[in-house]
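Posting for a labmate who doesn't have an account.
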Amino acid sequence: METWEEKVKRLKKISWELRKDVIEMIYKAKAGHPGGSLSAADIITVLYFEILNIDPKNPQWEDRDRFILSKGHSCPIHYAALARRGFFDREHLWTLRKTHSILQGHPDMKKTPGLDYTSGSLGNGLGIAVGMALGLKMNKKNSRVFVMLGDGECQEGAIWEAAMCAVHYKLDNLYAIVDYNGLEVDGWLREIMNIEPFKEKWEAFGWKVKEIDGHNIEEILNAFQWCFKVGGPAVIIAHTIKGKGVSFMENEVEWHGLAPNEEEYKKAMEELEKEVSLL
């Protein structure tokens, strides 16, 4: 039986390995979105290696949990997790964004095993998740629906229409996670369109809310257990750092959608390797 300490250490190691995959993928593709992929790495790790009830051998299993990465441009981290979880051969990772690859620049559920959604146009993920959660309840399924939102896309009205709908239909099988790294493609949220007071907005719409450090594996694990205890619709506001784990990418807006050159790639991989070696 795995102890709590062993579980946390295992998940930490996976999260850093997934970050390495992200950098490798984007470097080889010469395009992609490293910043938001790295900020979401720890949450995605906990979801795919601890929380989600899924079967890589049967991706369309009817009773599986569903996950939607609404901020679809951060799909490299999702692809990395799917590959390590066994949904497809890891060699596919190095074909990111190439013609005829199963891994495109935004998620396509018709191409990639393990995807429950197609996304890219921001603001739609929560609405899709609401529909899935409602459909599962109508079909008397016990499966759960998880959706990760970007903080920038929470500036869009469609998010709040879906939030209102979730409460109206009492979707206790729906859980949202907001990757709150404070940066969007053009700069700081607080300067472009401030979303604060953020926690209070969700509460006003009737959601249960928990704020955490989105890079603390223990807090992430405990937050999901809190979700299951209080029931949905519940949202975890995960405070993160854009580009987390690569020093020169952290909190730098240009790394929202920029691929590293050879020198930057080597430096990033050295830093990530060092983190892995410390675990």
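Reply:
Got it, the structure tokens are right above this. The beta strands are 66-69, 145-150, 174-180, 183-184, 187-188, 208-213, 234-239.
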